[in-house]
UniProtKB/TrEMBL annotation:
GO terms for molecular function: aspartic-type endopeptidase activity; DNA binding; DNA-directed DNA polymerase activity; endonuclease activity; metal ion binding; RNA-directed DNA polymerase activity. This is Integrase catalytic domain-containing protein. Keywords: Aspartyl protease, DNA integration, DNA recombination, DNA-binding, DNA-directed DNA polymerase, Endonuclease, Hydrolase, Magnesium, Metal-binding, Multifunctional enzyme, Nuclease, Nucleotidyltransferase, Protease, RNA-directed DNA polymerase, Transferase. Residues 1-152 form the Reverse transcriptase domain. InterPro entries: Chromo-like_dom_sf, DNA/RNA_pol_sf, Integrase_cat-core, Integrase_H2C2, Retrovirus_Pol_polyprotein, Rev_trsase/Diguanyl_cyclase, RNaseH-like_sf, RNaseH_sf. It comes from Mikania micrantha (bitter vine). The keyword Nucleotidyltransferase applies. GO terms for biological process: DNA integration; DNA recombination; proteolysis.
Length: 923
């Protein structure tokens, strides 16, 4: 009788008494040859309920109300209480000659005499504590006995044939519940079935939510499991005085392992891989198989020395290798508590574990993709050509012990399982190229490349060859970032002797329009740090900037002795240079693409931008109203390097306060005293600036490295990021080269700048700071080096070279002509589709009317009306009066567009072509 005690169980504190593991119980039977089994009669009913708890067991029936005086089925703590009572009863003899699993008691002995003594002890204990056995279920003095669903004998453990025979006629499951029932029976005996996890995987997948779809793979797994159980082997009982051997293997499908003693299997283990594990490398899968097998048989292996056999040769040196990934470190850490040795066993010898891991068989991932048959033929042929390998082969044939790490397999010379490559440059270069330059290798760094190659190949000085190959790879030199500190020690500019004699200039651009202005010209005195912020509006020219400079700077401070600036087109113009030549002003330009030369103005720019952000962030179009106050704030603020304010340096006094102030009696100072004080202040200022400059250089040089070149050295040049002049579609800068070249150095300019021999058609200043250069390694290409794809103002120099194709894009009733443009100095794969109108406006000198692509083919679409519009207005809307025209009249339009004297040119407005005035189409 079983009562529903779910309500009572909910409020009962569970007793977590450990229940014995069946596999561990069976392992205790090694060496036993005589067995007796005792089954208790209604075992739960032989334990009394505590009188105070009897009322809790009450239940109702049609004949009345009842309570249990003995322990009933259905209570949550019934199994734990009974197992605890049995363990207490036989505690002195447990796992010495008696095993207990609830009401099943097994007595085992090595001889009959010992067995009689053991039986008498067990029966006396039952009698003393008044436990009754059921005679019909007991057997005594047997050579083999059925215990817990397993047939136990001197030979070992095997499955219960009575239960397994029912599997032979098991019907095909029709739903998830029936699949789970079948897996429940077969899973109980999984330790007897080779590759159980792999075989049962299709059936296991059916138990997932909405996954029941019986197919061919499920039928094959169903029949294979039935046959495996019917032919299950006898497993040897473990002898803990003998060492264990774990044979393991892994494939892309899963892991398989066998626990062996003296050549006989003790247990089988297999498990299918998850999707993530299937994607791992062969090395990682084999390591995972090893760890899973050791963890599975933890109770056999912990505290004992055992052996692991694997067909993956590199795992033999697992404890000597450098672990390279976090995953490998985690797996290796799990093996640390165990005492083991790893042995290599070839795949042919490791068939048992190999069969467990694959069904039927799958190939391992190759680290390098090489034409192995051709490669290995060349390697075998080259072994006799290399003196080193020829000597090893001779020693192997006469005295193999003299070269213990070498072996000869299928005519290939191996060193610790890796193929030895002879000194044949073509073969080694092929391996280096595949291990570094191939898409699989991905131009990895030195360590990654060396690791990839050294797993399979070996030759003397392999590490040096890999390092040299990686360093000389031109692709890596051009495309990769440098992880070194910036090159070139800091070279401070000379300290000026007088205020407003040496100044620096720069523009702040990209500002929102504010009161017509969108640019700021920043002018800084390099001695006093006094600054002027002059607003400008686009478009401005060298003439307009020079006029503003004379009006606002020269008017107040005169012509300076020198001006430091970047290489902006304004400052490089003939007008600007001629103006200051006449004013006896020396123009000092920064080296190409190195704005740090004008570091003073860059710092002021940051201060000014920060000020404007603070006060104009809510109304960006009002920044011009704060510009005067920004200038006042900067000039009256304390400068850390000068220890005073720029205002005080220039005017010799603090600025007048902007709030009411009562002057004291000392306000009338003598002019001479004021001038003397000012001269003293300038002297102190120069001293402070020199100290600050020295301190700045010392700090900056700590993060820099000294790098120098000689005339004639080859270098590659870093030009990234650069500004880009593009059409409607932006070009991708992320994938643009980081370095260009190599180029040769023709001249050393100062201590940290060099002049390069750029191609003749390059339109950029050839002097560059050393931080933009790095040595070019390896052979220098003999093919002509293309020009730098930039202009002198550091914009992307995109010049159309050829029209490859054309097409019409139709969207929202509009048709747009697009051309496939091949850009000068760019490869064909970087050709882009560009809007015809934008292209004609951007490159008016690119004679589209001379191109023949318009008349080479026809339009393959059905003629449909398209809209030809007048010019857009400022708001981006089309003017009214547009007309519809059919595609069949396009030839007439082409004639009007490309013939300047065509009569339709005045009648048809075609936006963006030849500058013709746009008009509406007339009737």
């Amino acid at each position: 009788m079983c009562v529903d005690y779910r309500a009572l169980n909910k409020i009962t504190v569970a007793d977590k008494y450990p229940i014995p593991n069946i596999d561990e119980l069976l392992d205790e039977l090694y060496g036993a040859s005589i067995f007796s089994k005792i089954d208790l009669r209604s075992g739960y009913y032989q334990i009394r309920v505590n009188p105070s708890d009897i009322e809790k067991t009450a239940f109702r029936t049609h004949s009345g109300h009842y309570e249990f005086k003995v322990m009933p089925f259905g209570l949550t703590n019934t199994p734990s209480t009974f197992q605890s009572a049995m363990n207490d009863l036989f505690r002195p003899f447990l796992r010495q000659f008696v095993l207990v699993f609830f009401d099943d008691i097994l007595v085992y002995s090595d001889t009959m005499d010992h067995h009689i003594q053991h039986l008498r002890t067990v029966l006396n204990s039952l009698l003393t504590h008044q436990f009754l056995a059921k005679a019909s279920k007991c057997c005594f003095g047997q050579n083999r006995v059925l215990f817990l669903g397993h047939m136990v004998s001197k030979e070992g453990v095997q499955v219960d044939q009575d239960k397994v025979s029912a599997v032979e006629s098991w019907p095909v499951p029709k739903n998830v519940r029936e699949v789970r029932g079948f897996l429940g029976l077969t899973g109980y005996y999984r330790r007897f079935v080779k590759h159980y996890g792999i075989i049962a995987r299709p059936l296991t997948m059916l138990t997932k939510k909405d996954g029941f779809k019986w197919g061919e793979s499920a039928s094959l797994a169903f029949e294979t499991l039935k046959k495996a159980l019917l032919s299950a082997p006898v497993l040897r009982l473990p002898d803990f005085s003998q060492p264990f051997v774990v044979e393991c293997d892994a494939s892309s499908e899963g892991v398989g392992a066998i626990l062996i003693q003296e050549g006989h299997p003790v247990a089988y283990f297999s498990k299918g891989f998850s999707t993530n594990n299937k994607l791992k490398s062969a090395y990682d899968r084999e390591l995972l198989a090893l760890v899973l097998a050791v963890q599975k048989w933890h109770h056999y292996l912990m505290g004992r020395h055992f052996f692991i056999k694997t067909d993956h040769y590199t795992l033999k040196f697992l404890l000597e290798q450098r672990v390279t990934t976090v995953e490998q470190q985690r797996l290796l850490l799990k093996l640390m508590p165990y005492d083991f040795s790893i042995l290599h066993k070839s795949g042919k010898e490791n068939r048992g574990a190999d069969a467990l891991s694959r069904r039927p068989s799958t190939a391992h991932l190759c680290t390098l993709v090489l034409p192995n048959s051709v490669l290995f033929d060349d390697v075998i042929a080259g072994l006799q050509e290399d003196a080193y390998t020829r000597t090893i082969l001779q020693k192997l044939s006469h005295d193999p012990s003299s070269v213990p790490n070498f072996s000869l397999v299928n005519s290939l010379l191996l060193y610790k399982g890796r193929v030895v490559i002879p000194d044949v440059p073509a073969i080694r270069q092929s391996i280096l190229h595949e291990g570094h330059n191939s898409p699989i290798a991905g131009h990895g760094g030195f360590l990654k490349t060396y690791r990839r190659i050294s797993l399979q190949f070996f030759w003397p000085f392999l590490k040096q060859d890999v390092r040299s190959h990686v360093q000389q790879c031109l692709t890596c030199q051009q495309q990769k970032y440098e992880t070194l500190s910036p090159a070139g020690l800091l070279q401070p500019l000379p300290i000026p002797q007088r205020i407003w004699e040496d100044i620096s200039l720069d523009f702040i651009v990209g500002l929102p329009i504010s009161n017509r202005f969108d640019t700021i010209l920043v002018v800084v005195d390099r001695l006093s740090k006094y600054s002027h912020f002059l607003p400008l509006s686009h478009p401005f020219t060298a003439k307009s900037v020079a006029a503003l400079f004379v009006k606002e700077i020269v008017r107040l401070h005169g012509f300076p002795r020198s001006i430091v600036s970047d290489r902006d087109t304004i400052f490089l113009s003939h007008f600007w240079q001629e103006l200051f030549r006449l004013g006896h002003t020396s123009l000092k330009m920064s080296t190409s693409y190195h704005p740090q030369t004008d570091g003073q103005t860059e710092v002021v720019n940051r201060c000014l931008e920060a000020y404007l952000r603070c006060f104009a962030h809510e109304q960006p179009s009002k920044w011009s109203f704060f510009l005067a106050w920004a200038e006042y704030s900067y000039n009256t603020g304390l400068h850390s390097s000068a220890h005073t304010t720029p205002f005080n340096v220039v005017y010799g006094r603090d600025p007048p306060p902007l709030y009411p102030y009562v002057f004291g009696n000392t306000q009338n100072e003598e002019l001479e005293q004021q001038l003397l004080t000012r001269d003293d202040m300038l002297q102190v200022l120069r001293s402070n600036l020199q100290k600050a400059q020295d301190r700045m250089k010392s700090q900056a040089d700590q993060k820099r490295r000294d790098l120098s070149f000689e005339v004639g050295d080859a270098v590659v040049l870093r030009i990234q990021p650069y500004r880009q002049r593009s059409l409607s579609k932006k070009r991708c800068e992320k994938l643009s080269p980081r370095f260009f070249g190599p180029y040769f150095i023709t001249k050393k300019v100062g201590k940290v700048a060099y002049e390069l021999a750029l191609p003749a058609d390059s339109r950029v200043h050839p002097v560059f700071h050393v931080s933009l250069l790095k040595p070019a390694k390896g052979p220098i290409p003999t093919s002509p080096i293309p020009p730098l794809p930039i202009t002198r103002d550091w914009q992307m120099d995109l010049q159309p070279a050829q029209v490859l194709a054309h097409r019409w894009q139709h969207a929202n009733g509009h048709s747009t002509l697009e051309l496939l443009i091949l850009w000068a100095t760019r490869p064909h794969e970087e050709a882009t589709w560009e809007d015809y109108d934008l292209l004609a406006a951007q490159y008016p000198y690119f004679r589209l009317e001379d191109k023949s692509f318009f008349r080479e083919g026809s339009i393959d679409t059905i003629p449909k009306p398209i809209q030809v519009y007048s010019r857009k207005n400022k708001a981006g809307r089309l003017n009214d009066g547009s007309k519809l025209i059919n595609l069949e009249y396009l030839d007439l339009l082409y004639g009007a567009c490309f013939d300047p004297f065509h009569p339709l040119r005045e009648a048809v407005g075609f936006y963006g072509i030849s500058g013709a005035e746009n008009k509406e189409i007339t009737d």
